[in-house]
């Protein structure tokens, strides 16, 4: 017997087009006490509106409405698996799940049946190609020529799979455009990411690596069109496109001043991006960086964003997120930016928030890891040996931190238990590759190790691994400093 609920949620958005309602119906059977999540991010900024469905053992039958302006992606999450549903305005979609055979039992009926069935197959087959965390880890070990060949082969495999799709000729034109954009821009996204990731990882470098001209010569900027914004590959590409080519325009010099970086990127985007893509990029730039720049720079960028009514929805979100900075004086925020070094916080196994500043006075050896990272796991025995090798007189003056960038807290806790990481301080930074840890410490690949001195200053941004015999000596040298 199914449990019947009556819920009507309206998630509205507008990027200049009137939204119409699409309905997602749910039918779950043979479930335990689970929770199913449906979420929608109409503005593509990560500020998702989410509806939780608490599923009893008897199952659930329910429906939810989404305001879809033209087309959209709704995320369905259940028992650790996430599926993307493609919707166009006015669609009626029914999702069926049998808990006994999840996720194989997933069935999608109604509007966009064939399209969504293919989308699940495509995403499952090429999941690793679109997972930024895994792609960056792979990127770290490959020279640029080999990396381009890897991306080219992946793009060809994706294209071949798409061209052989059952019922391709009957797919919605907009859906086909969405898939083609995913394939095209995923290639360019991770090609342009290569020098940026390498540059951020190696802080000793003063310049960003220049890609060979032959590799970027085929980039057709005419295909950079606003109707590609639904594609997360395209949106990510926009960020790396602006970052790389703006860097090239400034002789590849790395920025030390985030305010100057935002101003230059803003100017470059204005000259090179189509209107909606430009407005989205400004919103993205402010949403993720307004707390790192001077108010005058943030206000200038916001003024350019809000000048057009097509950006009203983005402007509203930025006002809510960055209101304090937008209304502040440069001198006030400059002091805050100077004092931000110790502000990073993460959650421990008890669920308590822990700040690095609370550990000031100790030497910190930080290990950034994830359960899927094999090289990280291979270092754990050496980490334990390293801890045991610290002389007893220094034990109270040093802390070993394991900071996980796993996608979920559940994965993190299982990993801690599996690998018996009880000797150090275990912390979790929610958000995976887009977590606060990844942003704060510019993580582009793991394993990554970092050492902070007793004053709370980062002395080694890319510290040696626990397996390196020189690591112990460097730690003892810092411990001996007065």
Summary, kept brief:
With 482 residues, this protein is α+β, with helices and mostly antiparallel strands.
Topology record:
Elements: E1 10-11, E2 20-29, E3 34-40, E4 49-55, E5 60-68, E6 71-78, E7 81-88, E8 92-98, E9 107-110, H1 113-125, H2 132-139, H3 144-163, H4 173-201, H5 213-216, H6 232-249, H7 258-272, H8 275-289, H9 295-306, H10 312-326, H11 330-338, E10 345-348, E11 353-355, E12 363-369, H12 374-389, E13 398-404, H13 409-418, E14 425-428, H14 436-440, E15 448-452, E16 458-460, H15 470-480
Parallel strand pairs: 1-5, 2-8, 12-13, 13-14
Antiparallel strand pairs: 2-5, 3-4, 3-6, 6-7, 8-9, 10-11, 10-14, 12-15, 15-16
Shape: globular
Strand content: 15-25%
Q: Radius of gyration from the CA trace?
A: 24 Å
Largest sheet, in brief, is:
7 strands, mixed
Number of strands: 16
Task: Name the poorly predicted regions.
Answer: 1-14
CATH superfamily of one domain: Glutaredoxin
Give me some keywords for this one.
482 residues, alpha+beta, Immunoglobulin-like, Glutaredoxin, 7-stranded mixed β-sheet, 5-stranded mixed β-sheet, 20% strand, disordered N terminus
Give an account of the 3D structure.
The protein has 15 helices and 16 strands. The chain has helices spanning 113-125, 132-139, 144-163, 173-201, 213-216, 232-249, 258-272, 275-289, 295-306, 312-326, 330-338, 374-389, 409-418, 436-440, 470-480; strands at 10-11, 20-29, 34-40, 49-55, 60-68, 71-78, 81-88, 92-98, 107-110, 345-348, 353-355, 363-369, 398-404, 425-428, 448-452, 458-460. The strands form three sheets. The chain has a seven-stranded mixed sheet. It has a five-stranded mixed sheet with strand order 1-5-2-8-9. A hairpin with a 2-residue loop joins strand 6 (71-78) and strand 7.
């Amino acid at each position: 017997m199914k449990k019947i609920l009556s819920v009507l949620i309206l998630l509205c958005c507008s990027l200049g087009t009137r939204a119409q309602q699409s309905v997602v119906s749910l039918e779950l059977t043979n479930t335990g006490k689970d929770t199913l999540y449906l979420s929608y991010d109409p503005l593509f900024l990560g500020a998702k509106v989410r509806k939780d469905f608490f599923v009893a053992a008897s199952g659930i039958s329910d429906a939810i409405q989404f305001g879809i302006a033209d087309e959209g992606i709704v995320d369905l999450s259940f028992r650790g698996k996430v599926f993307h549903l493609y919707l166009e305005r006015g669609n009626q979609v029914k999702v069926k799940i049998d808990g006994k055979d999840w996720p194989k039992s997933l069935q999608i009926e109604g509007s966009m049946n064939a399209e969504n069935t293919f989308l699940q197959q495509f995403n499952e087959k090429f999941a690793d190609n679109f997972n930024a965390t895994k792609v960056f880890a792979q990127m770290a070990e490959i020279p640029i020529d080999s990396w381009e060949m890897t991306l080219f082969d992946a793009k060809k495999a994706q294209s071949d799979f798409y061209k052989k799709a059952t019922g391709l000729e009957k797919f919605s034109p907009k859906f086909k455009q969405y898939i083609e954009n995913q394939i095209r821009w995923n290639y360019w996204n991770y090609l342009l990411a290569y020098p940026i990731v390498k540059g951020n990882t190696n802080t000793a470098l003063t310049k960003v690596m220049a890609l060979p001209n032959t590799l970027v010569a085929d980039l057709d900027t005419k295909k950079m069109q606003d109707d590609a914004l639904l594609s997360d590959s395209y949106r990510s590409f926009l960020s790396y496109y602006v970052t790389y080519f703006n860097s090239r325009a400034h002789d590849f010099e790395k920025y030390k001043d985030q305010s100057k970086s935002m101003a230059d990127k803003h100017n470059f985007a204005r000259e090179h991006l189509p209107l909606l893509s430009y407005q989205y990029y400004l919103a993205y730039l402010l949403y993720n960086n307004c707390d790192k720049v001077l108010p005058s720079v943030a206000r200038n960028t916001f003024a350019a964003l809000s000048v057009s009514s097509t950006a009203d929805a983005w402007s509203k979100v930025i006002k809510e997120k960055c209101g304090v900075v937008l209304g502040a004086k440069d001198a006030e925020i400059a002091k805050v930016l100077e004092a931000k070094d110790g502000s990073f916080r993460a959650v421990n196994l008890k669920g308590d928030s822990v700040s690095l500043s609370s550990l000031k006075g100790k030497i910190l050896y930080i290990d950034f890891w994830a359960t899927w990272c094999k090289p990280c796991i291979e270092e754990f025995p050496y980490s334990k040996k390293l801890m045991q090798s610290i002389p007893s007189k220094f034990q109270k003056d040093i802390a070993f931190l394991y900071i996980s960038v796993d996608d979920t807290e559940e994965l993190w806790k299982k990993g801690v238990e599996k690998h018996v990481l009880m000797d150090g301080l275990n912390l979790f930074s929610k958000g995976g590759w887009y977590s606060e840890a990844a942003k704060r410490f510019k993580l582009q690949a793991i394993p990554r190790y970092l050492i902070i001195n007793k004053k709370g200053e980062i002395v080694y941004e890319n510290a040696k691994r626990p397996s390196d015999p020189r690591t112990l000596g460097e730690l003892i040298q810092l411990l001996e400093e007065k």
